[in-house]
Specification:
The chain has 253 residues and is α/β, with parallel strands linked by helices. The protein has seven helices and eight strands, in the order βαβαβαβαββαβαβα.
Length: 253
């Protein structure tokens, strides 16, 4: 697989050597038109954006999502399809079918494999999945959405790992797994919601200390997730302009 790296010659998985955004997936373009429009703003430090049509690619091509994905790709932004592994319980054939639909319908550049297992016992299954997804993509960018630190072997199964996804109240006291120090920051992603504006600098420091190269911080709070509800990562942070400016010019130590 092309995703394997060595600690002797670390490669940038994101295509960028500095801190940047990975957008977990805004709400549907009809519900969040401002959010999707902001992603094509010149100079926005984006590593990638996740497209989640309907907890996956949906049953058929969605013209609004086609348009949004097309604008991003024309702007040079990497678009990833959202796949749900359901902590290892997802039927393999269904996952691969969704992946093929994302590629056929939306020409995605890779995938975020959400709710990915973290235990050593599941590693062989996940490696089989990422090898198949790599074949579907014929190369491309794979992100494993663990949400916490997995067994170290997962680092060799994809380009990036989401090693934190959750609220600021947990993030500010979180600790990094020692094994992550063997890899460059470009390999790790942090998603944090409920970050107050007054604690943005602290959140940036934690991301640097823990070795994350791709982040998404938002002041939106709560898990949400019920039908018709907007989850915290599906809308624009209230301090979007400020955080884009800080990351775009490089966050000071």
């Amino acid at each position: 697989m092309p995703h394997l790296t060595t600690t002797d010659t670390p490669l940038s998985a994101t295509g960028a050597e500095r801190l940047g955004f990975g957008v977990p997936g805004y709400a549907h373009p009809l519900v969040a038109p401002v959010e999707w429009a902001e992603l094509t703003r010149p100079g926005t430090p984006l590593h990638w954006v996740v497209l989640n049509v309907a907890e996956g690619p949906g049953d058929r091509p969605d013209p609004h999502c086609l348009e949004a994905a097309g604008r991003l790709r024309n702007a040079g932004v990497r678009v990833l399809g959202h796949l749900d592994m359901a902590h290892g319980s997802r039927v393999f054939g269904d996952l691969v079918r969704d992946a093929q639909h994302f590629v056929d319908w939306y020409q995605t550049d890779g995938f975020l494999v959400d709710r990915c297992p973290t235990e050593r016992a599941d590693l062989a299954q996940v490696r089989r999945t990422t090898a198949t997804l790599d074949a579907v993509l014929d190369g491309g960018h794979l992100v494993l959405g663990h949400g916490s630190h997995p067994y170290p072997g997962y680092a060799e199964a994809a380009d990036q790992l989401v090693t934190f996804s959750g609220p600021w109240a947990e993030y500010r006291w979180s600790q990094v797994a020692e094994w992550t120090a063997e890899y460059p920051p470009e390999r790790f992603v942090h998603f944090v919601h409920g970050v107050p504006r007054t604690h943005l600098e602290e959140a940036f420091r934690i991301a640097r200390w823990q070795g994350a190269g791709t982040i998404f911080f938002t002041d939106r709070g709560g898990r949400g997730g019920g039908r018709g509800q907007i989850r915290p990562f599906e809308t624009l942070p209230g301090y979007w302009d400020e955080i884009v400016s800080q990351i775009g010019r490089g966050v000071s130590e």
